Amino acid sequence: MQNLIENLNKAFDNRVRLGIMSVLMVNDWVDFTAMKESLQITDGNLASHISALEKLEFIIINKQFVGKKPQTKYMVSIKGRKAFNDHLNALELLIKNK
Q1: Which candidate, 11, 2, 3, places its Cα nearest to that of 86?
Q2: Is 22 left (phi over 0), alpha (psi -120 to 50) or beta?
């Protein structure tokens, strides 16, 4: 019998990382403030989970100055998109299993 949870990606076990990836999958770029407000989490919480996803190369970070203010934006990478889609497909198989 096939292990139905073996294809779930541990990187997305955490609800914040799941939320970050969900937001990024449907948007081209999302800035730090919009992401924080969308997920209703603290700066530090968002930063730590973004860092974990960046280490896995699942997201791309763009830092720039707009006027004199720093702006950080995020985008899902090709590797991240594939990993998240694979995770969603594994969840779907798990749900559909009878």
Answers
A1: 11
A2: alpha
- 63-94: per-residue pLDDT in tens? 999 889 999 999 999 999 999 999 999 999 98
CATH code of 81's domain: 1.10.10.10
What residues make up the domain containing 80?
Answer: 10-96
pTM passes above 0.85: yes
For the chain, what is the domain count? 1
Task: State both tokens at 5.
Answer: 């949870």
CA–CA separation, 88 and 97 (whole Å): 14
3-state SS track over 29-85: CEEHHHHHHHHCCCHHHHHHHHHHHHHCCCEEEEEEEECCEEEEEEEECHHHHHHHH
46 within 8 A of 37, measured Cβ to Cβ:
no
